[in-house]
Amino acid sequence: MIHSFQPEDLIVLQADELSCDPTAVQDILDLSFHMKIRVISILDRITIKAQGAYLRKMEHMTFTSVVRQKTGNFWRADIYDKLGIESKEVKKKKRIGIYCRVSTREQTLGYSIDNQKNKCRDYMNLFNDDYVEPVFYIDEGHSASTLERPSIKQMLQDVRNHKLNEIIIYKLDRLTRNVIDTYELLSMFTENDVNLVAVMDNLDITTANGMLVVGILAIFAQWERETIIERTNDGLLQMAMEGKYPKSGVLLGYTKDKDKYLSIDEETAPIIRSIFMYARAGYPLSDIRIKIKEIYDYKLRTDRIKRIIFENGYYGEFTYKDYVFPDVMQAIVSKEDAMEAKKVVGKRSVAYGKEQNKFYFRNKITCNNCGGLLGGIPTYKRNKKYYYYYCKKCNQRINQDVISHQIIHDMIIYTDKTDYKNEAEVILRRINSLQRKLKTVSRQYAEDFLSDEAYDTVVKSINLKLNKEKARFGRIKIINGHNWNELSDSEKRGFVEQTILTMRVDLNKKEIIKIEYHENDSKKK
């Protein structure tokens, strides 16, 4: 075969297909070398391509030793001893991680973690003869739509810390179904010299073909996930058309039976009616929360109260995926009352949202006379708005500009004590990252992958971090030479929040008496 034409490569599925006789294999390899033909064994992952006799000898001995193992002759050539090399310096045991995952849905369908573990271990035993006992990373009840899984996060940390040489998975979709995540993971593995093997996909990323297959499989995995979402959405829409409640959990004021039909809960429905009544009367959300606790001994957060008021289903027009389904939720309040409550709360929310960052020293100023906390009130004069801080008990106030003029210079001097000058870019990256997370969470919530409670918890956590980073960013801009007047209202508010703990003001003299900074630094005026 070799003499009939001049190939560049001789490719076999595995080494013993050349011959079952190690001596004959050696002769074929020698002849291939002299004719400059590269020999590749696919399953054994051996390529003889070296031009130097030293490395050629090592590769030949590896090839023939593999043949001996597979043909029943278990004498193994110790390559390193034959070549006079200290094996401990060259040969290291492979550190292997095995990752397995099943989603909650797959668990209900009978998919097993043990099956994945066994397949991966079988592969490891077949193709790896010298390895440390593998580390198993198991994620049960987790979807592949996100990398926010405890075990995969630990595995990736071990990759970064160079604790692994190879990762074995059952199929590529056990790792992730997202194209972007796939390529980010592959980049990380490559940068850290970690091989990835997907057993059932016959995939090994050390080869060019392997990388190509990964790209194709990742695209199909993404397509599969989007198809599942599409089918799920179609199924949920069908449920709503049948009068069933298509979301997880159940809204306050209703009960849900085993067939997912809602009924009014006479124990909690009065809470809903009271919320709408107080909202129509102009009560702030915080006051409604207090009233509900006093009357019904039921705790509600203000953000949940607001969602209740803006839920169309409470007046019988349940809206899902931009469609209105009148048969899903029985009305607890009339549409007229609900629309009036929305109107009042909507106006209040817009006004509050626009004004809250205008009061830069909100919740920071106390009255020197009575010790009370000053509230913020806007006033109008000659078509211009002014912002004051007002003490109800003493019936006195102070203009925000007066406070700003007295304190800005001191705040900048205080802030300049610490070295934050090189952090602006880092903080901005963190802000962008958190904003991307918010978008992702909102998308997952819209697609019903998150319950109301989970969504509230995650969004609250992200917003808390986001507000802190924005506050720090405003502070950095001041340090880096930006004028106070160049900052946005939110940046000014953030700068104050990061710098000042509290201040005491004499409302008679319109003077700041004492400023307490964060980190227990205080200054008397």
TrEMBL record:
Parts forming coiled coils: 417-444
Protein name per the record: DNA-invertase from lambdoid prophage Rac
Biological source species: Clostridium innocuum
SUPFAM superfamilies: Resolvase-like
InterPro entries with a match to the protein in the record: DNA_bind_recomb_sf, Recombinase_CS, Resolv_N, Resolvase-like_N_sf, SSR_resolvase
Gene Ontology terms: biological process: DNA integration
Transmembrane segments: none
Keyword vocabulary terms for this entry: Coiled coil, DNA integration, DNA recombination, DNA-binding
Domain of life: Bacteria
Active site residues according to the UniProt entry: S103 (o-(5'-phospho-dna)-serine intermediate)
